[in-house]
Every structure is written in C-alpha cells, then in structure tokens.
C-alpha cells in the first residue's frame, strides 16, 4: 500500500507518540539516482523539510552506504545524526568515528581494491570509501552482462580477503565481515534515543535490512517502527516485499515529509 493509505492506521503513532524518529537513506530517497554518484545531492525541498522536522522530532538521521564524511557534506544539515558505510561510521564532533573492528580490515580492503582494479571492465568505477569498497557499473556498456560475468570474480576476491560481497542498484560492495548493517543501525538509533515510534525510508537492497528490522521491532513491541520503501522502475523486489508502505520516487518521499511535518505541527497546536 502507499503511505497515503496508512495515515490513519500504521503511520498514526508517528504523530501521536511522544518520542519519534525519522531515519532515511539518501541516494534514491532524498536524491534522484544519477549516472555519476558524485553528482547526487538531496533535493532542496527534501532538505528544507528535514531541517524543519528536526525541530519537532526527537531524532532525524541520515543513514547511507556512502562514507559518512561524504554523506554529511551532501546533506549538510545541522542537528541530524549521520551514519555512513552502512553503519560502520558515524559523524561525531565534526569528525569521522569508525567502529574499532573495522580497522582490522584496512589492509584486506586495499588488497581487494587492487585486485578489482586489475580486472575491472570499461565503464566500471571503483569507489574507495575507507571502511568499504563500492564497484559501480551503471555506466558500463552492458550493465546486465557485467552483473552476470563480473560478480563471480568479485566474489572470489571477497572470499580471498575475508570480506563480504553485497549487491545493490548497479553496484557491488565489499565490506568487512561484521554483523552491522542498516537494520542494526536503525535498531541502535531507536534504543539510543529511547524512541516510542520511528520510520525508516529507503530504496535499495541494503535498505531492506532496516525495513525488515522495522517489522521485527514492531512485532516485538519494542517500538512502533515503520519501514517505507521508495518505488521506481528498477526497485529491487526485496524492498517491495519488506516495506510496510511505499512512496513513489523521491517526489513521493518529499510529499510524505511534508505531510509528516504538517501533521506533527498540527498535533502540538
């Protein structure tokens, strides 16, 4: 169902609860997907709405697969919590704070980067994010062929260096073998801020961990958590399956944020 169908049911506690949080992905959620990841920025409308929501909610956070310094620079809003590299980093006191166990895999990641660079087909871009590596193939001549033929080679590299391989929308990611993802980050933020209700918004495979966590937290009555998926032409099926409700693209997310802000403001009048 769309989020508009849930305003009087599933989403109602987001308005009526005392301590409420909004946790959102960036790319494909606040920012349109673009051929070059360096060109992706949140829309001005989404930034304005997030800034206003941060004045009324207990927590507003941005969680991304991007390096947290990159995420912080692109969103660039005070008062938000920033978590990057799928929860392996936080932005605290104007600097990057990396989970201590990540440091053990620096050498492995650099060796993996060299190995991937040696075999990367034309059009593939390797992004070194410090705690992880992203291998973008959106601009390859035949992305589907890259996905089919290149993935086994990347998996071999990951296995050789004791890393984990993940896939997203025209991207592969190599990460340390740690049980940290957007789902665990979502839960951690809820617990740290003692939230009564929270919503997570995301569009990609890695966001499905948080969408699933929302349902689990709600079922366990730990928090009224809601997972909103962002729907587009190439939304991974796991997002559609895992989400409690859907928004139609970045513009649909903006419409939800505007409804959320107006509803929260009206509830305190």
Q: Main traits of this protein?
A:
269 residues, alpha/beta, Rossmann fold, Alpha-Beta Plaits, 2 domains, eight-stranded mixed sheet, four-stranded antiparallel sheet, 9 helices, 12 strands
Helix content: 25-40%
What CATH architecture of the largest domain would you give?
A: 3-Layer(aba) Sandwich
Model regions low in confidence, pLDDT < 50 over at least 5 residues: none
Please report the first level of CATH classification, the CATH class of the largest domain.
Alpha Beta
Give the C-alpha Rg: 18 Å
| CATH superfamily membership of the largest domain | HAD superfamily/HAD-like
Average pLDDT level? 94
| Total domains | 2
Strand order of the largest sheet: 5-4-3-2-1-10-11-12
Count the helices. How many? 9
Number of beta-strand segments: 12
End-to-end distance: 30 Å
Order of helices and strands: HEHEHEEEHEEHEEHEHEHEH
Largest sheet: 8 strands, mixed
What global shape is seen? globular
Structural class: alpha/beta
Strand content: 15-25%
What is the CATH topology descriptor of the largest domain?
A: Rossmann fold
